[in-house]
Amino acid sequence: MRLGILGSGSGSNMQAILDAIDDGSLDASIELVLSDNPDGFILERARKHGIPTGLIDCRGFKQKFPDEAQTETAQALKDAGVELVCLAGFMRLVKQPLLDAFPERIINIHPSLLPAFPGLESWKQALDAGVPETGCTVHYVDAGMDTGPTIIRAKVPVKPDDTAETLHARIQEQEHRIYPEAIRIISAGGA
Fold it and tell me: What are the binding positions for N(1)-(5-phospho-beta-D-ribosyl)glycinamide in this chain (predicted)?
């Protein structure tokens, strides 16, 4: 399966996908990595692996993902032969026209057991709510915020002495495990 990755930050989930490809447990290739953040370490990770990279021009918007930028992103992904788009810490809401260009072919990893705690810093939301467990979810992307159908989830207990940092670190361990698994499931036609 030919993957395209969109990210804004460090790219640890992309690294987990790369590691699964490298160890032979995931039959896929990453064809293109795009970021809306020129300083995102995800770009450096991709370059170190010889993967083409590019910047998404969001026209100065801090949070919005303008239609023109989505059209350009979709074209770059199509030109690279991408079959499945993986959001890996991409901090903008995907809407049309990108959704139209890759119908049911865009997935995201979110650090909660959706539908609980959508949006930003969900591990902090879980701590504030006092829930006994949280986790992470890989889901298909639709026009809502973290509302698409679930592919796979992993639970993480919330410990009494957890801080936002310790809980987030344990959630990320599970993210790195289940994101490649979700791609395997899709590739096998299981989701």
Answer: 11-13
Whether residue 127 lies inside any domain: the answer is: no
CATH no. for residue 78? 3.40.50.170
> Which domain, by its residues, includes 8?
2-109+137-153+175-187
Quote the CA–CA distance of 30 and 5 in Å, as a whole number: 7
In a domain, 55, yes or no: yes
Cα 56 to Cα 59, 70, 76, 82, 146, distances in angstroms: 9, 8, 10, 16, 21
User: pLDDT 10s digit of each residue in the chain, 191 long?
Assistant: 999 999 999 999 999 999 999 999 999 999 999 999 999 999 999 999 999 999 999 888 877 898 999 999 999 999 999 999 999 999 899 999 999 999 999 999 999 999 999 999 999 999 999 999 999 999 999 999 999 999 999 999 999 999 999 999 999 999 999 999 999 999 998 77
- Classify residue 121: in a domain, yes or no: no
Known binding positions for (6R)-10-formyltetrahydrofolate: 62, 91-94, 108
Give the chain's domain count: 1
The verdict on residue 130 lying in a domain is no
Q: Residues marked as binding?
A: 11-13, 62, 91-94, 108
Residues acting as catalytic residues: 110
